[in-house]
TrEMBL record:
Origin superkingdom: Eukaryota
Function: Second trifunctional enzyme acting on the beta-oxidation pathway for fatty acids, possessing hydratase-dehydrogenase-epimerase activities. Converts trans-2-enoyl-CoA via D-3-hydroxyacyl-CoA to 3-ketoacyl-CoA.
Similarity field: Belongs to the short-chain dehydrogenases/reductases (SDR) family.
UniProt-recorded name of the protein: Peroxisomal hydratase-dehydrogenase-epimerase
Subunit structure: Monomer.
Residues represented out of the complete protein: 1 to 318 of 904
Localization: Peroxisome
Amino acid sequence: MSELRFDNQTVVVTGAGGGLGKAYALFFASRGANVVVNDLGSSHNGQGNSSKAADVVVSEIKAAGGKAVANYDSVEKGDAIIDTAIKNFGRIDILINNAGILRDISFKNMKDQDWDLINTVHTYGAYKCARAAWPHFRKQKYGRIINTASAAGLFGNFGQTNYSAAKLGQVGFTETLAKEGAKYNIIANVIAPIAASRMTATIMPPEVLENLKPEWVVPLVAYLVHSSNTTETGGIFEVGGGHVAKLRWERAKGALLKADASLTPGAIARKWNEVNDFSEPSYPTGPADFITLLEDGVKLPSAQPGPEPDLKGKVALV
Ligand code: NAI
C-alpha cells in the first residue's frame, strides 16, 4: 500500500509550536512537505510571545531529515506568514488554521478584552491567513484549507461565550470558502477536534487525555488536504481519540402557515409540534434550499389553515 504523500507541496500550520499544530507539522514534514511552522509562542490565554516554540519544532523536523522554516508572527499578520512560505519554498498549497487561545470566563464577568482577543486570534487570524493564501490558490487552481472549530462552538459550553462564538464562526467561514473555492479546486473543511494539549490539560483527567493524543487527529486532516480529495469540501468533522464523524444540519419538516394576517404568535403556538417534528427531516446545505422549501410549501396541505383547536375554557392564543 502506498502512503499519501505531500512531496513538493508547502504546508502552513499556524500555532504549530505545540499541541495539535506540532503534530500536524511533524506529520506533513515526514510525508515530504515543506512546512512553515508558525507560532507566536504565547501562553494558553494569549499572553507574551517567544520564538522557542516554533524553533523547537523546526529543529525536530530538520533532525529527522525534513524541510521546515519557522515564523513567529501572530496569525493577525497572515500576510507575513504566507510570505514566509513563498519566500522560502516558492509556493503555498495547504493552510491549516490551527492557532488558538482561551479566555474562559462566565458571561456575567466577560470583558471586552476577553471577547476581542479571542475573536482576533480565531476569527480575524484565520481570515487573514486564508485571505493571504487565496490569490496563490486561485492562480495555481489548487488549494486546501482546514479551519478549526470546537465542540464548544457547535454546542455551547459554560464559560466560553467568546470562544464558542469564534469557533462556530469557523464553520460559516469554511462553508463559504468551500463554495467560493470550488471553481478553483480550493477545498475547505472544518474540524472540531479533541486532543490532549496544554489547552485541555487542566480540564480533563490524565487517564482520559492518554487516549486523546493529537496524533489521532492528524490522519483525518491529512486525508482532507491531500490532492486525492477532490470532492469532500465544506464538511464539518468531529475527530479525536480514534473517532471520526461528519456532522450536518438537520431541519425539521416544520410548519407552513399562510403568510397573511393569520400568521400570529398564537398560530405559531398551535403549530409548535410541527415546528419541532424531526420525523421527516431534510439536510440543507445552502440558503437556496429554504426558497425551494417555500415554493414547494405553498402546494402543501399544511400551508392551508388547519382546523381551529378546541379552546373551550382556555385562553385563545393569537
Ligand atoms: P495549544 O495551546 O497546545 O496550541 C495552540 C498554539 O497556538 C500554541 O502553540 C500557541 O502558542 C499558538 N498561538 C496562540 N495564539 C497565536 C497567535 N496569535 N498566532 C500564532 N500562534 C498562536 O492548543 P491545541 O489544543 O493544540 O489547540 C489547537 C486548536 O484546536 C485551537 O484552535 C483550539 O481552539 C482547537 N481545539 C482544541 C481542542 C482540544 O481538545 N485540544 C478542542 C477544540 C478545539
